[in-house]
Amino acid sequence: MLEGKAVIEDTDMPVKMQIQAMASASEALDLYDVLDCTSIAAHMKKEFDTKYGSGWQCVVGSSFGCFFTHSKGTFVYFTLETLNFLIFKGASYLI
Q1: Rounded to whole angstroms, how far apart are CA atoms 74 and 4?
Q2: How far apart are CA 78 and CA 84, in angstroms?
Q3: 85: which strand partners?
Q4: pTM for this model (two decimals)
Q5: What is the mean pLDDT of residues 80-93?
Q6: Rounded to whole angstroms, how far apart are CA atoms 72 and 26?
Q7: 8 Å CB contact between 78 and 8
Q8: pLDDT for res 94
Q9: Bridge partner residues of 92 (DSSP)
Q10: 44 burial class (0-12, 13-18, 19+ CB within 10 angstroms)?
Q11: Within 13 Å, how many C-alpha atoms sit on residue 80's CB side?
């Protein structure tokens, strides 16, 4: 397990899911090289799809921009070690 502590930057996710997201990130960082952000994100997405139903999206990296619509109560953005983590469940956007 990593020694670093995750810092929540923004969220509307229930605390239990936030804890799961941070634990999943920590586990992925133990399994994959810190530079393999795609595998880290895939690991987290698959875990959330299995536990909370399909439709989850995950972005991992040290620098990225994004714009998205998410289902209420499914968004968390946090930092752990040198990486930023964004996980959310997609939502339909009606014009």
Answers
A1: 24
A2: 6
A3: 60, 78
A4: 0.88
A5: 88
A6: 25
A7: yes
A8: 59
A9: none
A10: buried
A11: 26
